Amino acid sequence: MALTASFMFVEVVGGLLSGSLALLADAAHMLTDALALALAWGAFRLGRKGADSLRSYGYRRAEVLAALVNGLVILALVGWIVWEAVSRILAPRPILGLPMLAVAATGLVVNLVVLRILHGGHDSLNLRAAALHVMGDLLGSVAAILGAIVILLTGWTPIDPLLSLVVALLIVFGAVRLLRSAFHILLEGAPEGFDEEQLREGLLAAVPGLEDVHHIHAWSLAGGHPLVTLHARIAPDADGDAVLVALKRELEQRFGLDHSVVQIETASCPDQPEHCA
Asked: Domain 196-276: which topology?
């Protein structure tokens, strides 16, 4: 966050001196990056809080909310870049290629360092959101370097807003994927790769005494933290405790579901029949 915020001021000065939209757009994006990293940090801090009487699952969802906010901010930023780029294509402005190249090259190094710091958190939607911001900056730096080289060699300044549009297009695809993932989790969607029928068949084949599995619900608190609830009907002569232990072990070791709530039944399902299909 400190690296990003510090270099943002360098890019603002460089963009104003050189007249480059690519640098100013990247500076604006770095401002949102600093805010995004602060939001991500705050969400992680909040997410570490344990469960309490008001929130029995704790605060892990704060990371998903932070990712959602960051995705919406990215889309707003893309809209501003597109507006500025179109206006500069219609009315080109003079750009100083050498200062633009120097600042963009330094920005590339800074963004690579920040991306390296964030590396390894791809199971967290929150870190994916922060990394997406930084990846957008990295692409912006690359675009600014290419634009500066073209301007220095040919003097053709429209390359600057055109490359800004390309970067904006690349960023928006990542933002849409991020928002889709956040909305999926907030709507209690099934974890990635979850197959209800495969789970049912796998448990029936692996757990002795198990006759039926139904009323299966799976969701995630945050990326990488899946939960499942299900009803398990067992044979009349089966040991309920032994079946429960085997079910829990199978859910964790085979399906990666380490938090499960299992209702053992020895007769018909006590809930409504349509809920037990």
From this structure: Alpha-Beta Plaits (3.30.70)
Per-residue burial over 129-145, b if 16 or more Cβ lie within 10 Å, else e, is: bbbbbbbbbbbbbbbbb
Helix (H) or strand (E) holding 159: helix 159-186
Q: Cα(243)–Cα(232) distance, rounded to whole angstroms?
A: 9
Whether the full predicted model's pTM is greater than 0.85, yes or no, is no
pLDDT digits (tens, 9 = 90+) for 8-39: 888 788 878 888 776 776 677 677 777 777 87
In whole angstroms, what is the distance from residue 264 CA to residue 269 CA?
10
- DSSP, residue by residue, 195-254: -HHHHHHHHHHHSTTEEEEEEEEEEESSTT-EEEEEEEEE-TTS-HHHHHHHHHHHHHHT
Which CATH architecture does the domain made up of 2-186 adopt? Up-down Bundle (1.20)
